């Protein structure tokens, strides 16, 4: 209404023709901010957070738009998740199963290509991690591989550039530079994709003392003994206790800093590390120390992400384009912040498979809305296309959640979601598994691999929200289990999941493993 009134006023003043005022609404710009490994537990807009940190700029999107409480990813790991975002397809169709031996086929259909063909200006800056060069963008500037936090090298439209400074600031600088120089007659897609807060969790040097040596509230399951669950949970290699390295714990300086930067880094960490070494901690005290150091570093990274989200939102305000720009904040998956004693992701469990998702679209999203429906980053491509008025290709496997943004829930919106993880055995030794997720339950199949036999688990999130005990085969759940088994088969057929997948889909398969992954489809 406001825009129309303004246009009418301009017509009255003779500065605009009546024809322009009658033109259809302008196609919205899309600012898609994507973090790497940002746990929803570390976004203060989420009520279930452990009050670990404050993210006022990211929270602004929830206040002025929609907070999605159940955004699930099909495969909780960086590259595969990004391939899903680009294609709107599961990894068995887009070909990017794992981070160890996959290269994204950039000739396939992606949503940026479709937006570009429809007249959008398209750009991606920051983390890419799909191994091949980006396609479908007017401009791209991406980190090499995982990228580094301090003074990162990047590739700008095919040319290597070395930058000085902190990665989250530099990615935002590049996004802002491109936005300032864009063709203002066209709508834009800007994908501002951060490295942070990915391992090895290195905050901006200005933020090192951000938390004043706070003790963080640990999750109840920090010392989980994995009883009530199977071998996969016990045999993983992603625990705060056993897996973290001296680099993870900042007991040695990070690579790539200048001597001046290293001085600042040492001035913060070294006195604290001295104290730690002198204390000679063991057992639970040592785990608690590592947990606190982890939270300091991880949440410190998020502080800079949040500050830089604020810079982008301010730009939209200052430029007067916030009203016609969809802003999306999400992460390529969730992350464990000590739950089950873990860091990292990969599992179908809630901390990992669920990502934060906040969307602001002025005039469409009602401020302060919360949505509990199951949505996914599988739906992002479809959603962006519908928002831009571009037809959604039939071979995409998600569904546009534009109706949900408008406050409507279609009667046939999904009630279940299919999940499948592949990468094994390295890194982190998380057994390949697949399963079905509903609002209340999860049925999971951990696959046979080498000498490890397959098994199933069933979780009731209403009675066991932290997924501590499988209720598989318990009499109370007979009907539920049968229903979920059927639903899992239905989803696998609908999504065209093949029964046999090449062992290479698992990445660095140990060739000495007796079956090399071939017998992975042991029937229940
Ligand atoms: Ca990630």
Short description:
The protein is α/β, with parallel strands linked by helices and about 525 residues long.
Main features:
524 residues, alpha/beta, Arylsulfatase, C-terminal domain, 3 domains, disordered C terminus, binds calcium ion
Can you describe what's shown?
The structure is a single chain. By secondary structure, the protein is an alpha/beta fold. The protein has three domains: 2-201 and 303-405, 3-Layer(aba) Sandwich (Alkaline Phosphatase, subunit A); 205-293, no CATH class; 417-506, Arylsulfatase, C-terminal domain, CATH 3.30.1120. It contains 14 helices and 15 strands. It has helices spanning 2-12, 18-21, 56-64, 78-87, 91-94, 111-117, 167-180, 231-235, 259-279, 283-319, 350-353, 380-387, 402-405, 478-494, and strands spanning 29-35, 66-72, 121-126, 139-143, 153-156, 159-162, 188-193, 325-331, 354-360, 369-371, 375-376, 416-421, 433-438, 441-446, 455-460. Strands 1, 2, 3, 4, 5, 6, 7, 8, 9, 10 and 11 form an eleven-stranded mixed β-sheet that branches. Strands 12-13-14-15 form a four-stranded antiparallel β-sheet, with helices on one face. Mean pLDDT is 93; it is low at 10-23 and 511-524. Bound molecules: calcium ion.
Write the layout of secondary structure elements.
Blueprint: H1 2-12, H2 18-21, E1 29-35, H3 56-64, E2 66-72, H4 78-87, H5 91-94, H6 111-117, E3 121-126, E4 139-143, E5 153-156, E6 159-162, H7 167-180, E7 188-193, H8 231-235, H9 259-279, H10 283-319, E8 325-331, H11 350-353, E9 354-360, E10 369-371, E11 375-376, H12 380-387, H13 402-405, E12 416-421, E13 433-438, E14 441-446, E15 455-460, H14 478-494
Parallel strand pairs: 1-7, 1-8, 2-10, 2-11, 3-4, 3-7
Antiparallel strand pairs: 2-9, 4-5, 5-6, 8-9, 12-13, 13-14, 14-15
Bound molecules: calcium ion.
Calcium ion binds at residues 36-37, 78, 198, 332-333.
